[in-house]
Amino acid sequence: MNKPASKLFHARNRHQGEYDFAALTAAHPPLATKVRPNAYGAQSIDFADAEAVMLLNQALLRLFYGLDWQLAPGSLCPPVPGRADYLHYLADLLALDNHGVIPSADILDIGCGANCIYPLIGQAEYGWRFTGTDIDEAALKAANRIVAANPGLQRSIRLRRQKNPDAVLAGVVNKNEFFHAVICNPPFHASAAEAAAGSQRKVRNLKLDSAAPLNFGGQHNELWCEGGEKAFVGKMIAESVALARQCVWFTSLVSRRENLPALEKQLRALEVAEVRVVNMAQGQKQSRFLAWSFMPAATRAQRLAK
């Protein structure tokens, strides 16, 4: 079936409507080998084909953002339209404290991965400066290769390793650094077994051979952590207290809505000035991110004005 980019994305999201495969293949000719009519006669790709999905991502990033993007084998292949949505809604959140104007900003990306997708899109769309962190040295090397392949990005995107696999924010922010926002796409699953079961469900839903490579890929640290996203975001909340004066907004995606009450309860027990849940409707998928700030609105406005 055809796989359109939803019309329900954020208004500034470039990926509205169905994919324009004529424009995409013109921007990235290798994609043409994977484009064929679907059951309805429309041009599309096989979204169960990992190589086709990667080529589509390369075409999207080249056509809309002028980026050269090479994914390291086995790494998480992100859905570009959905990743862009997080950044557009984050821009709106920052603008609320800046008289409705999207500010220049320094962003900390927790778990940037080998694909480095948030810094790439955020820099292209808003000129933001990014510091990306990851526990995987190989992922950081792959991300650095992407940055190096695109002239000018090394001035706007820097990457550093989180040396403590049990920490989220602790140890990656220097004492004199300041960020306007932290973003995070936490590991979804709570265990390797749960991640494997989820992968097998996707294999069955896509009617793939059980030995076929997954179209989205992903290393274990990208897909799961002990306790899943609830534990990961909970740890991030606990560690954010020490950085209360060094960041305007802390944010994280929360894929499972049922995890929100416990996380909001944890935040209410701290001296946070504001908590927001920002909902994002992406077609049939409902997504959201949790945002919190230790700074009152007046202080946030002062910091963003600088």
UniProtKB/TrEMBL annotation:
Chemical reaction(s) catalysed: adenosine(1618) in 23S rRNA + S-adenosyl-L-methionine = N(6)-methyladenosine(1618) in 23S rRNA + S-adenosyl-L-homocysteine + H(+)
Matches recorded under Pfam families: Methyltransf_10
Entry annotated with the keyword tRNA processing: no
GO biological process: rRNA base methylation
Keyword Transcription regulation attributed: no
Domain of life the protein comes from: Bacteria
Main location: cytoplasm
Subcellular location: Cytoplasm
EC class name: transferase
GO CC, alphabetical: cytoplasm
Alphabetized UniProt keyword annotations: Cytoplasm, Methyltransferase, rRNA processing, S-adenosyl-L-methionine, Transferase
Entry EC no(s): 2.1.1.181
GO terms, molecular function: 23S rRNA (adenine(1618)-N(6))-methyltransferase activity
Role according to the record: Specifically methylates the adenine in position 1618 of 23S rRNA.
NCBIfam families the record matches: PRK11727.1
Alphabetical list of HAMAP family matching this protein: 23SrRNA_methyltr_F (MF_01848)
PANTHER family: RNA N6-ADENOSINE-METHYLTRANSFERASE METTL16, SAM-DEPENDENT METHYLTRANSFERASE
Family according to the record: Belongs to the methyltransferase superfamily. METTL16/RlmF family.
Name of the protein in question: Ribosomal RNA large subunit methyltransferase F
Species this protein is from: Candidatus Pantoea deserta
Taxonomic lineage of the native organism: Bacteria, Pseudomonadati, Pseudomonadota, Gammaproteobacteria, Enterobacterales
Gene it is expressed from: rlmF
